[in-house]
Amino acid sequence: MVDNRNLSTIQNRLAELAKLPKMKENSSIMEVLSEHGFTRRDFMKWAGAMTALMALPASFAPMVAQAAELSDRLPVIWLHMAECTGCSESLLRSDAPTIDSLIFDYISLEYHETVMAAAGWQAEENLGHAIQKYKGKYVLMVEGGIPDGDSAFYLTVGPKGTTGREHAIHASDNALAIFAIGTCSSFGGIQAAAPNPTNAQPLHKITNKPVINVPGCPPSEKNIVGNVLNFLLFGTLPALDVYNRPKWAYGLRIHDLCERRGRFDAGEFVQEFGDQGAKDGYCLYKVGCKGPYTFNNCSRERFNQHTSWPIQAGHGCIGCSEPDFWDQMEPFEVPLGDRLYHTVFDGLGADAISDKIGIGVLAITGVAVAAHALIATATKEKE
To answer: Which of 3, 151, 296, 334 is the most exposed place for a label (fewest CB within 10 A)?
Structure first.
């Protein structure tokens, strides 16, 4: 519960932000939204949805809207490391821009190699200038794993051949807050898969400063924008889980809000892709779905303009927001069963209690499968 003192603190913080100079003159968030067909009502509905997503009281909606309107006061530097740029692409490339992507466009993005016109020496100069000008005031977002140690030369950036590791350390040392965007930056990424020839490492192993992990391949744009709004509102890091993921976004399993959860509880499973169960929307656990082990909000937020997501499309979750999913979750189309995989707790999932619950659920699944088979057989014989 948020008391009046906390509300007053947030209001004072937003008032201080409002006093800072705008980084985009002759522009407001409503003008940007109006150009793309969004009304003030649409914007406030979006603010209400973001408030709920971040697990804040409904009374915070006006302040979330105000934080979005002040987002151009926040300079952002976005670095690309060893990755496919999919996190940026999923956020910026859409046939019909969402309010989330437009908010991100409105933020003062001082450096982003994918969208800026500069290249070579000019890009290098722009990065150095942005870090120096906004030293201690900018938010750093890093996309991609970072080759380290003797293998750091596998990633060199710019005309001087500076390693990605050097860029990441320099930018991190002068940042106000740091976000690792996507699973590559959060946990090393697929390039860190065994035997990890480039010694790719997550950002938090490169810098000694606190890093907020926003994993996913790619993460939801709401998870990216939501973290920016949270920082604008509170000026501090949000509540984090053991893997430094914001609990408001990664506090529940994919399984918890999955539309096929009822099928799981009833013991109704797809046995192989293309069978009748697959056509009828049965649970995908037996064909490899890792939803019971994966913490993310894909089942609620979805992708492609929030219209669909892998399980709805007919393929199980591969656990892409979990550490080492590329090694621990494979083969992707085979169930883990009760096989343990390594975590900081030497068990299943992201916390010890969840491990025990998860194992219990999997044991119950066996009973449910057997019960379902008996019922189906009895019904068939009766017919």
So the answer is: 3
Within 10 angstroms of residue 119's Cβ, the number of other Cβ atoms is 12
Long-range contacts of 29-37 (CB under 8 A, 24+ apart): 29/68, 29/69, 29/71, 29/72, 29/102, 29/103, 29/106, 30/69, 32/102, 32/105, 32/106, 33/99, 33/102, 36/97, 36/102
| Domain boundary assignment for the chain | 4-250, 254-382
CATH topology of domain 254-382: Cytochrome-c3 Hydrogenase; Chain A, domain 2 (4.10.480)
CA distance linking residue 148 with residue 335, whole number of Å: 33
Question: Can you count the helices (H) and strands (E) in the chain?
Answer: 17, 9
- What is the C-alpha to C-alpha distance for residues 248 and 358, in angstroms, rounded to an integer? 21
pLDDT of residue 82: 94
Give the residue ranges of the chain where pLDDT is below 70. 1-5, 24-26, 93-96, 338-383
If phi > 0 it is left, if psi is from -120 to 50 it is alpha, else beta; for residue 158 that is: left
